[in-house]
Each structure stands twice: as structure tokens, then as C-alpha cells.
């Protein structure tokens, strides 16, 4: 078994109208990116707005098809998966998005939201599902009665705790998160990040974590890829990228982190 769970190979994505003879004439959002994510580790992807991070993550989630290149999980091109294999992929790789409110059905209770993946995948019976949801709510630090509340009755931080719970309820192998804490206040952001990291370690999950915030990326990542204009300009172990950045752009990003000396001392 390879030590890489996810491999992104020479992936590009061009958006926009296809012109004469279906020649792509749009924006190249991602341009020839090659990255690997080791089992049980977190790859952080950092870059400014528009650098292609979300597009890359969505391709790894099989939500957007690459214009060229492949994304592999366990050595299999995810676009070749069909039927039961595709369903297994959907269980194995879970997303967490920036704004969970938009991916929760407002009419469903938190209990219904969390039990749905178990029902879809035919896991357990009514009682065991409910017990699983209750245990997970406790694990993510929410009160027992949250099970009967609705998303609009929860704070932003609580909603992201639910998003984390939903992402792990099927015991996936990987969690792919796109700016999961960016909409939160700084203090809440730190708590949710800690929770994400704790649960990921407890469950031995592999992760990709996308953020424009280098301090956030530093906190959760084993490896870091720095993206700019659709390309990866720097990629390596987090300590090395942070401690000895090679690319000018990475140096600029690090210099822009407020209190980065304090951050370095705290690490
Ligand atoms: N569906 C789409 N159609 C056309 N262009 C798109 C689409 N999605 C993204 N783009 C463009 O692709 C480029 C990369 O966008 P992307 O959202 O991947 O970057 P990002 O680094 O995640 O930025 P942000 O943090 O602002 O989301 C941008 O120029 C964006 O306008």
C-alpha cells in the first residue's frame, strides 16, 4: 500500500466558454498542479483569493472535472469510479465547506442532518444511529439537546462543529476542508481548528485543508503547498516551508502574518 492516499497529478482546470472547435478560451484557474497527501497527514494549501485553491479542492472531491490531469485515491483515478466504487469514494472522502449553513437543510433538525449519511449508506438501525449521533455531538462539544435544534438556532462555531461531526460520522479516510474557519471570529476559529485537529488525529484521518490564512495553515498542516495564479510555487514539509521558504511569494506571505515571530516562538 502506497503511503500516499491522494495523488493529484498534473491537474489543470480551465473555466469559461469553449470557443471554435471546443478550444478552451476561459480562465485557467488551476494550472498543472501535482501534489500528494500522505495517509494520516494533513496537506495545507495556502494562497491568496483567486489562486485556485477551491477549484483544486473541488476537483479532489470529484465535484469539478479537471480539464486535464488526474486525481487518484488509493491509486485509482476518481473519474473512473462508478456504482458501488463511487459510493465507497463518497463515503471515504468527506468535505467541510466554509459556510455550512448553505449545505444544511434549514428544515431538518441537527439529529436528522447527522443521521442522514448513516441512512444513505445503510449503516446501523434506528437506535444505534441515534446513539452514534448523540456520542458524536458530545465529542464535538455540543449539548445533548442540540440534537433537536435547527441550524438557525446554532452559532457559526456550533454549525462548524456540526459540519465536522457530519464529515466524520461515516468514519471516512479523508476530510477535505475549504476555509472551514474563515467565517468565524478569531477566538471561535481557534477552538474549531483545535477540534478539527484533535478529531483528525484521534481518527487517523488524512486531510487537505485550504485557507488564505498562513497562520491557520501552519497550525494544522504536516505539508504545505503555496498556490499562486493556479500553480504551486512552493511545496514541502511545513517546518521547512515556514522555517526556510525558498520562493519570494512564500516569504512575502510569511512576513504578512501578524505576529509571526510570536507564532514561531509558540510552535
Ligand atoms: N465556476 C467558475 N467559472 C468561472 N471561473 C471560475 C469558476 N470558479 C472559479 N473561477 C475562477 O478561477 C480562479 C480561481 O478561483 P478559486 O475560487 O479556485 O480560487 P481560491 O484561491 O479558492 O479563491 P477564494 O479564496 O477567493 O475562493 C478565479 O479567477 C475564479 O474567478
Describe the protein's topology.
Layout (H helix, E strand, L loop, with lengths): L3 E12 L11 E12 L3 E5 L6 H8 L7 E6 L2 E2 L5 H10 E4 L13 H11 L5 H14 L16 H13 L5 E5 L7 H18 L2 E6 L2 H7 L2 E6 L2 E7 H6 L4 H9 L3 H7 L1
Parallel strand pairs: 3-8, 3-9, 6-7, 7-8
Antiparallel strand pairs: 1-2, 1-4, 4-5, 9-10
Helix pairs in contact: 3-4, 5-6
The site of adenosine-5'-triphosphate has 13 residues, from strand 2 and helix 1.
Describe the protein's architecture and organization.
39% of the residues lie in helices and 24% in strands. The chain has a single domain (4-101, 174-266), classed as P-loop containing nucleotide triphosphate hydrolases (Rossmann fold). The longest helix has 18 residues, at 186-203. The strands form 2 sheets. The chain has a 6-stranded mixed β-sheet with strand order 6-7-8-3-9-10, with helices on both faces. A 4-stranded antiparallel β-sheet has the order 2-1-4-5, with helices on one face. It has helices spanning 53-60, 83-92, 110-120, 126-139, 156-168, 186-203, 214-220, 238-243, 248-256, 260-266; strands spanning 4-15, 27-38, 42-46, 68-73, 76-77, 93-96, 174-178, 206-211, 223-228, 231-237. By secondary structure, it is of the alpha/beta class. The structure holds adenosine-5'-triphosphate. Residues 15-16, 27, 29, 47, 49-55, 212 line the site of adenosine-5'-triphosphate. It is found in: Cell inner membrane.
Amino acid at each position: 500500500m502506497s503511503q500516499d492516499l491522494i495523488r493529484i497529478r498534473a491537474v489543470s482546470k480551465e473555466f469559461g466558454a469553449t470557443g471554435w472547435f471546443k478550444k478552451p478560451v476561459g480562465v485557467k484557474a488551476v494550472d498543472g498542479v501535482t501534489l500528494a497527501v500522505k495517509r494520516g497527514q494533513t496537506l495545507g494549501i495556502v494562497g491568496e483569493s483567486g489562486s485556485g485553491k477551491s477549484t483544486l479542492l473541488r476537483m479532489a472531491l470529484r465535484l469539478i472535472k479537471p480539464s486535464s490531469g488526474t486525481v487518484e485515491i488509493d491509486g485509482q483515478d476518481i473519474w473512473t469510479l462508478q456504482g458501488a466504487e463511487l459510493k465507497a469514494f463518497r463515503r471515504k472522502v468527506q468535505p467541510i465547506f466554509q459556510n455550512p449553513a448553505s449545505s444544511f437543510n434549514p428544515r431538518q433538525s441537527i439529529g436528522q442532518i447527522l443521521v442522514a449519511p448513516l441512512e444513505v449508506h445503510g449503516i446501523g438501525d434506528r437506535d444505534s444511529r441515534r446513539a452514534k449521533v448523540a456520542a458524536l455531538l458530545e465529542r464535538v462539544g455540543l449539548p445533548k439537546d442540540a440534537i433537536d435544534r435547527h441550524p438557525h438556532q446554532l452559532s457559526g462555531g456550533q454549525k462548524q462543529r456540526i459540519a465536522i461531526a457530519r464529515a466524520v460520522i461515516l468514519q471516512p479516510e479523508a476530510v477535505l476542508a475549504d476555509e472551514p474557519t474563515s467565517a468565524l471570529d478569531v477566538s471561535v476559529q481557534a477552538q474549531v481548528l483545535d477540534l478539527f485537529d484533535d478529531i483528525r488525529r484521534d481518527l487517523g484521518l488524512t486531510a487537505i485543508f485550504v485557507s488564505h490564512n498562513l497562520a491557520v495553515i501552519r497550525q494544522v498542516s504536516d505539508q504545505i503547498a503555496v498556490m499562486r495564479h493556479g500553480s504551486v510555487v512552493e511545496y514541502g514539509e511545513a517546518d521547512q516551508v515556514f522555517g526556510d521558504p525558498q520562493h519570494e511569494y512564500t516569504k512575502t506571505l510569511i512576513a504578512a502574518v501578524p505576529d509571526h515571530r510570536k507564532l514561531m516562538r509558540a510552535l
